[in-house]
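BACKBONE STRUCTURE TOKENS:
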Amino acid sequence: MKIRNPESRYDLKLKRKYKVLEVGGGNDPHPRSNVIVDKYSGDKNYHRSGNLKILKHQQFIEADGESLPFCDNSFDYVICIHVLEHVEHPDKFMKEQFRVASRGYLETPSLIGEYLAPRDSHKWVSLEIDEKIVMYEKEKIGFKKTFDFGELFLHYLPKNSLPFKLVQRTINNLLTINYEWENSIEILINPDNEEYLRVFTTPWDIEICERVFKKRNKAEELIKTISATKNIIKLFTKNKLFIMK
């Protein structure tokens, strides 16, 4: 089930005693991860932005995320950041994470994020709808890369704009889906449901906007803004303000 939408990958419910697995740490592993699994070692970088990186306290295991080499419940928590959009079988990939850990964090580009910063290595586009992760193959919905604003939205604004950081943290799932879960979550792969297809293939009207981005009252907006501001200050003090994948 869904726990919440964290404001960033550094806003996770991780206890100090947790043994943490990360699937697909790539060139930017989460500092809290104890064990890193990656399908590609060395300099095979088609699916990542740089060479594989492993921090000193982390153990590396080369393995396929669709068949993890661990017993059931080997970990307390599993992290998966910007990997799901690459894999062949997202449902199988996530079921392995549900098997080896009872809770975890998933981060993947949203449909909006993929249009703004498209990547040829990304097979899938995703949205959170009704607390489910809904995924379509780009080919199935006729996704077309028109213009790449990746440098602006992935690098320039995160480095130079505090208001942009605040927008990211107050509007859940705007450019990336940030989803913390427990036990398991529902993932819909290429659903034929007309309502879901409409969200992914037609111009958005107010009904779609309100379905994907739930309206909050004034009190909820204020609480969210204060929380996001505190999170930004916390990251700033840890010198992580300008880190974004």
